[in-house]
Amino acid sequence: MLRRIALWVCLAGLPLAACAQGFTLTSPALPADGALPRTSVYTQCGGGNRSPALRWIDPPVGTRSYAVTLFDTDAAGGFWHWIAFDIPVGAYGLNPDAGAPHSGNAPGDTVQLRNDFGNVGYSGPCPPAGPPHHYVFTVYALNVPTLGIAARFSRTDALAAIRQHTLARATLTATWGR
Fold first, then answer.
1. CA-CA distance, 45 to 36, in Å (whole number)?
2. Residues 172 and 25: beta-carbon distance below 8 Å
3. Is residue 15 packed enough to be buried (19+ CB in 10 Å), middle (13-18) or exposed (0-12)?
4. Contact status, residue 18 vs residue 29, Cβ threshold 8 Å
5. For a disulfide at 59, which of 35, 63, 92, 130, Cβ 3.0-4.6 Å?
6. Structural contact between residues 71 and 52, judged by C-beta atoms closer than 8 angstroms
């Protein structure tokens, strides 16, 4: 019954926020605002460099695919650790190590771009010594089945396409420092 009401509200043209209130991102490996496990830390900082499992629930009506990013908000100018898109609509999350390119851990034809380390796929945190940095995982519910761009496209182009097709987004923030 509640789903029918939510569908009616969204179809009636109410603001996007009203249609995506339940869209939530969680991870069994990441407590909200907690520290990332060492398994998710970049190899050069002594970690396993495995992307954590992610789960999302209640995407908005009209969702046709997903994108996922990981961004360090505390690095000078920010730092992109992961940009993945064309995640099929039937996926309600990503398995551990889905950020390893060509591993088969990401669903369907997921595309992964080069991150700011210069690697394709996920590269975990490795900030300089000092206070912990904040790492924001974001899942975007998109209104297209694919963005129509390839891994060779620039981060700027991919992020612009993600923004253009976003119905809603959900975030999860974790920290890590050394």
1. 13
2. yes
3. exposed
4. no
5. 63
6. no
Angle at CA of residue 46, ends 45 and 52, nearest 5°? 90
What are the boundaries of each domain within the chain? 16-176
Task: Copy the structure tokens of residue 44.
Answer: 């050069």
pLDDT band at 32 (very low <50, low <70, confident <90, very high): low
Q: At 168, which amino acid appears?
A: A
Q: 5: pLDDT confidence band, cut at 50, 70 and 90?
A: very low
Tokens of 137: 């995982």
R_g over Cα of the chain: 16
Question: CA 59, 61, 65, 71 torsion: positive or negative?
Answer: negative
Instruction: State CA 146 to chain mean position distance.
Output: 15
Residue 173 has pLDDT above 90, yes or no: yes
HSE on the CB side for 103, CA within 13 Å?
Answer: 16
In sequence order, what are the beta bridge partners of 171? 138
Class of domain 16-176: alpha beta
